[in-house]
Amino acid sequence: MQLSDYMPLENIHINGIFNELGYSDSTGRHVLTFCDNLNYLNIALKNDSISSIIIKKDLLEYTIDSKKGICITEEPRNTFFEIYNLLRENNLLNINRDYGVGSNVNIAPTAIVSDKSYIGNNSVISDNVIIKDNVFIGNGCFIDAGAILGNDGVLYMEKEKNNIFIRHAGVVTIGNNVTILSNAVVVKSVFPNMPTKIGDYSIIGISTTIGHEAVVGKNCRVLGNCVVAKNAQVGDGSIIGTSSVIRENITLGKNVDVKAGSVVIKDVKDGGVVSGNFAMNHSLNVKNYFKGQK
């Protein structure tokens, strides 16, 4: 695909190619992205996976030395998602994966399972579970009653002061021996090349939400009523306590311990222990709490 397939020639500075869509830091092969500020543009220009960029006119001067495709519009984000919608509606966002059900799988009669999904060997799908398109579940998983895998999350663009919802066209990948408890929700990614992931042997608690493009590593425990927002990265072996919120686009390292009720808004290094709203070092937080009791 080329920019000129979707945009007027007068908007095209360099007619680039693209095979996939994503954000400025996405990986893939010939990715189209959008940038509405210099920070994201610099990231995209340095990213070898990005082949074409939609920008505002005032950013053009910063692309002089680039050979990437460049398209100029007044609203790069809206233009990008208009192209995305065209591709999605015409089934041009390809997902090259096998669908089906493995051996010795137990699916409750009341579960709803898409034909465009995969469930691995020895997995159990309980009552009233909904598994939507392009959800890929590994071996030995247990999905408890009422869980929903592969639904859409909140994503929109504004046009003429109205909210226009953007449907998701991506993937959910569940590892082996994963447990997802009752009424948990795992949102599919927006783009096929950036799946929402839950790693092997992780446990997702009751009524917890995992947002689009979020990645939960191996052997994690995300307890009940938590939110892991879009594109948050949770390292292997981490624990997220009950009713905690992990903000979008942040990274928790390996073996992080987030205490119950925390609201985490910045990255946490390997082995970090945080608590509070907003979350901070747990030991310091406890000291501050007891100081306030005097």
Automatic annotation (TrEMBL):
InterPro entries: Hexapep, Trans_hexapeptide_repeat, Trimer_LpxA-like_sf
Name this polypeptide is given: UDP-3-O-(3-hydroxymyristoyl)glucosamine N-acyltransferase
Taxonomic placement: Bacteria, Pseudomonadati, Campylobacterota, Epsilonproteobacteria, Campylobacterales
Family: Belongs to the transferase hexapeptide repeat family.
Residues of the signal peptide: none
The organism of origin for this protein: Sulfurimonas crateris
